[in-house]
Design a protein that fits this description.
579 residues; alpha+beta; five-stranded mixed beta sheet; 12% helix; globular
């Protein structure tokens, strides 16, 4: 039997284990889990330079990778490859991938060599690539040590260096307990400078092309708490192993305080999260040539923290050699009292404010981990503690322009400009923004919440964006119920498309429920929904329709319409049309 198990394992490229007692069995499973975790390459994001004048990519693609471990701190990396007629090629111009005959999946060849690597790195996530070039002595790392520094901070002014000469980097600022010595403080600073890149678990890299002899710069955030700026001008041709140097890295104040936790992170326990939220780029390109001129154009990065915290940041990278912390928004501050974990991507929307077009950032109120991470409970009729609502802020200043959500009735305080009592569940989802008449201005929003409610917001064009009357909000659907099985959640934005139904033009809104915090949970009866919004014209309907429920919908699970014939088919079509 043992020989047979060995043969099976070897044929599948695996390993066999023998266990005669509980302790040996546990050790075997630990070994298996460690092997699975360490042997696979995890991708979290993809980026490519793009020429808006030719609608072509720059012939290069960048992947962000991470290496999950049973420890609290994970490693990450950025790797680059050539794209040649749809084929991924390594730095030497050779095809970088192959079909694995065992798994049937496309994998990186063991002999492939990514950009900036000194030798073949194949499918090894944290070998080669960007991290191979990190040199502790030469790194430019900027930190915010004073939590009051939130707007207009010149990160390159010499007062924000992560360096032992920076007297502002005290033990307390870095989260060190007790009364550490100067040598211990310096040791933590030097340790932080020497660390590899952290994991970009849920983040997406962005590439910006600059003029003025700067070229292409890649930006990526990580759970280590850094925003990295990487020079990706090279290679320009096969055989060139140059490039991939870090221009600078920025760590906000919220993450500086976690340095002590990170140095102690090589132990089993909950993963440490940092700047793990999605990133949005606003490019103001005056001549529309797809190249940012630092003298005349603007490039701003907006990103949140996801499970890392309840803040959003705006960093001006118009000149990548002189980054500025433009502003930040913190949960619990005036106007953002109920801002939760910042999961929702800041969507850039062009809104007609009076007679002026202005760029506005629109995002959901975030995630309430305390309420929504709990297993096998019904939906709380009282709602969540934080994360409810939709926010509108000025893209340049971060100033709150408007907000929609459920005020705290126990205090009598108006936390939202527009009080919608039923919008009481957190919204980690991105907001689906729509321009219903194609005039270039956003006038409609769709989003689902963690109470399985689907919302529509109409924005009156030409009104005062800061006024409560500019927003019309109503619930399109409520797909929850009173039991734990009915406690559905919407983490992601709906897909929206114009279509026809019974000869009329309608808007189809499709979205699925799930439990992102516990994806293997089977208690909840999750579903995929497609509903019809018949009001396709601009503006709120004259009469607000009643919210749809499960009973309003046709159950298509059994797929009878596509499998039935004759009378049975006609019966099902009639049933669908009645819903």
């Amino acid at each position: 039997t043992w020989g047979y198990l060995n043969d099976v394992a070897n044929a599948g490229g695996g390993q066999a284990f023998e266990a005669n007692d509980l302790s040996t069995l546990v050790d075997a499973f630990r070994t298996i889990i460690s092997a699975v975790i360490s042997s696979n390459q995890r991708f979290s994001g993809f980026a490519s330079s793009f020429d808006s004048t030719t609608l072509q990519t720059g012939g290069k693609a960048y992947l962000t990778l991470f290496n999950p471990k049973q420890e609290r701190v994970w490693d990450g990396n950025v790797k680059g490859y050539f794209i040649d007629d749809g084929v991924i090629k390594d730095v030497n111009g050779n095809p970088a991938t192959q079909l694995d005959p065992v798994s049937g999946k496309v994998v990186f060849k063991p002999t492939s060599q990514s950009f900036w690597s000194s030798g073949p790195d194949g499918n090894q996530s944290i070998s080669g690539g960007f991290v191979e070039n990190l040199s502790p002595a030469s790194r430019n790392i900027y930190v915010i040590t004073n939590p009051a520094e939130t707007t207009g901070v010149d990160l390159n002014d010499g007062n924000h260096n992560l360096d032992t000469s920076n007297a502002n980097l005290t033990a307390a600022v870095m989260g060190m307990p007790g009364t550490p010595t100067t040598a211990e403080v310096d040791a933590l600073i030097n340790w932080a400078r020497s660390q590899r890149m952290g994991d970009p678990l849920h983040t997406q890299p962005e590439v910006i092309k600059y003029g003025g002899g700067i070229g292409e710069v890649l930006y990526v955030t990580t759970n280590q708490g850094y925003l990295h700026a990487v020079d990706v001008n090279n290679p320009t041709a096969p055989g060139d192993t140059g490039g991939g140097t870090e221009m600078w890295a920025f760590m906000p104040n919220q993450m500086v305080g976690t340095l002590q936790s990170q140095i102690a992170g090589a132990v089993a326990g909950p993963h440490i999260y940092g700047l793990d939220g999605p990133m949005t780029t606003l490019l103001a390109d005056a001549n529309g040539n797809g190249v940012i001129d630092p003298a005349t154009d603007k490039a701003i990065l907006y990103f949140g923290m996801r499970r890392g915290g309840d803040s959003y940041f705006a960093v001006d990278v118009s000149d990548p050699n002189d980054p500025q912390l433009l502003w930040q928004i913190n949960g619990g501050t005036p106007g953002f009292e109920f801002l939760g974990q910042t999961w929702s991507r800041m969507s850039v929307a062009r809104v007609l404010d009076g007679a002026t077009a202005r760029p506005v950032l629109i995002f959901g109120g975030g995630y309430d981990a305390a309420s929504q991470d709990v297993l096998d409970v019904p939906r709380d009729p009282a709602g969540d503690g934080v994360g409810m609502g939709i926010y509108f802020v000025d893209a340049a200043t971060g100033a709150l322009l408007n907000s929609i959500g459920a005020d705290d009735t126990s205090t009598g305080t108006q936390e939202f400009r527009v009080d919608v009592p039923a919008m009481k569940y957190s919204i980690p989802s991105d907001i689906r923004i729509e321009d219903s008449d194609g005039n270039g201005y956003v006038d409609r929003l769709y989003v689902g919440d963690m109470g399985a409610q689907l919302w529509r917001v109409d924005i009156a064009e030409g009104g005062d964006i800061t006024a409560a009357g500019t927003m019309s909000t109503y619930m399109l659907a409520d797909f929850s119920g009173t039991t734990a099985a009915d406690n559905r959640r919407f983490y992601y934005p709906p897909s929206v498309a114009l279509t026809t139904r019974n000869g009329l033009t309608v808007t189809a809104v499709a979205l699925g429920s799930g439990f992102r915090a516990h994806p293997l949970n089977t208690t909840i009866d999750d579903k995929f929904f497609s509903i019809v919004d018949s009001n396709v014209t601009k503006g709120a309907p004259t009469t607000t329709p009643a919210a749809l429920t499960l009973g309003s919908l046709y159950d298509a699970s059994s797929n009878i319409i596509q499998s039935a014939t004759g009378t049975a088919l006609n019966t099902e079509i009639s049933a669908l049309n009645a819903k």
